[in-house]
């Protein structure tokens, strides 16, 4: 995934991926192995199905704020998803062209948490009294890219993080990581034969010693059977909190998506199939389990 043009969107996506790649070891491991086996000739040959972000549903933030960036860059807001157990809302955004990834943005419904958890979150976010995106010059790609790496609230204490972790691992992840890229997604069906099904690709990844998310099974399948997804489990990294305590916490991960050809195009030769002829969008049940790639139960699962 790399965009050569100097459009603001290209600058933003390149910058996001560079920060993410440097901090998520599995990205390099998988890419290097694909290169060594001749599956791809460069990182740029890997098609990025989608990228995902997590947000907090509080005044001046959340999806309503975050989406302004990508709507300005030509993305179109699509379907809504609700995750009752995890207390989340989400939307996906269709890209302005097939060269760009879809975007999946989720939001914690803070008002559904306990009063104590809400108070912790608001302690950090109440200082934001206006939508920070409104101050950006979105035509300046580097300014927007820098914003997405910038802390929007002060560093949390280890006790606040731990308390949130007990109630909502999603809340704990966001209170520390903020808008950090949650994951990028390799389009498995775009790879060459031997690697272009999730069964084959998962075996390849596990052969590298990388652990997969097993929540709901290693392969999460949509009701129509046309969207199948897997993901690695986030590695732990040392995070220093405001009280000087260092804890090992979840970072980000890599997802893999296999989008099947829609039934009406099943007889189309493989080399003539376009992205528009494959299953689009997302699936609530799949995404619900993918979220758990940063959850303690998955990370510590042997």
TrEMBL record:
InterPro entries noted in UniProt: HGLS
Cofactor(s) the record lists: Fe(2+)
EC number: 1.13.11.93
Key words of the record: Dioxygenase, Iron, Oxidoreductase
SMART domains assigned to the protein according to its UniProt record, in alphabetical order: DUF1338
GO molecular function (one): dioxygenase activity
Key word Iron present: yes
Enzyme class: oxidoreductase
Xref: PANTHER family: 2-OXOADIPATE DIOXYGENASE_DECARBOXYLASE, CHLOROPLASTIC (PTHR31136:SF5), DUF1338 DOMAIN-CONTAINING PROTEIN (PTHR31136)
Family stated for the protein in its record: Belongs to the 2-oxoadipate dioxygenase/decarboxylase family.
Protein's recorded name: 2-oxoadipate dioxygenase/decarboxylase
Source organism (scientific name): Sphingobacterium spiritivorum ATCC 33861
């Amino acid at each position: 995934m790399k965009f050569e043009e100097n459009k603001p969107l290209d600058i933003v996506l390149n910058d996001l991926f560079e920060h993410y790649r440097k901090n998520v070891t599995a990205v390099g491991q998988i890419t290097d192995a694909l290169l060594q086996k001749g599956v791809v000739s460069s990182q740029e040959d890997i098609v990025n199905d989608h990228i995902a972000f997590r947000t907090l549903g509080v005044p001046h933030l959340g999806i309503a704020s975050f989406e302004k960036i990508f709507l300005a860059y030509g993305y179109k807001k699509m379907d809504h998803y609700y995750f009752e157990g995890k207390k989340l809302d989400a939307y996906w955004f269709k890209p302005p062209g097939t060269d760009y990834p879809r975007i999946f943005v989720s939001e914690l419904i803070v008002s559904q948490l306990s009063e104590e958890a809400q108070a912790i979150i608001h302690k950090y976010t109440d200082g934001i009294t206006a939508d920070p995106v409104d101050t950006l010059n979105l035509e300046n790609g580097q300014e927007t890219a820098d914003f997405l790496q910038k802390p929007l609230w002060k560093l949390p204490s280890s006790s606040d993080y731990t308390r949130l972790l007990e109630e909502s691992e999603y809340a704990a992840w966001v209170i520390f990581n903020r808008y950090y890229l949650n994951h990028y997604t390799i389009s498995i069906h775009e790879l060459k034969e031997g690697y272009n099904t999730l069964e084959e690709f998962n075996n390849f990844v596990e052969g590298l010693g990388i652990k997969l998310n097993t929540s709901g099974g290693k392969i999460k399948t949509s009701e129509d059977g046309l969207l199948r997804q897997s993901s690695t489990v986030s590695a732990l990294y040392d995070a220093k909190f405001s009280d000087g305590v260092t804890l090992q916490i979840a970072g980000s991960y890599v997802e893999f998506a296999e989008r099947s050809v829609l039934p009406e195009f099943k007889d189309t030769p493989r080399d003539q199939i376009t992205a528009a002829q494959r299953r689009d969008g997302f699936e609530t049940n799949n995404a619900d389990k993918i979220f758990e790639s940063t959850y303690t139960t998955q990370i510590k699962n042997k």
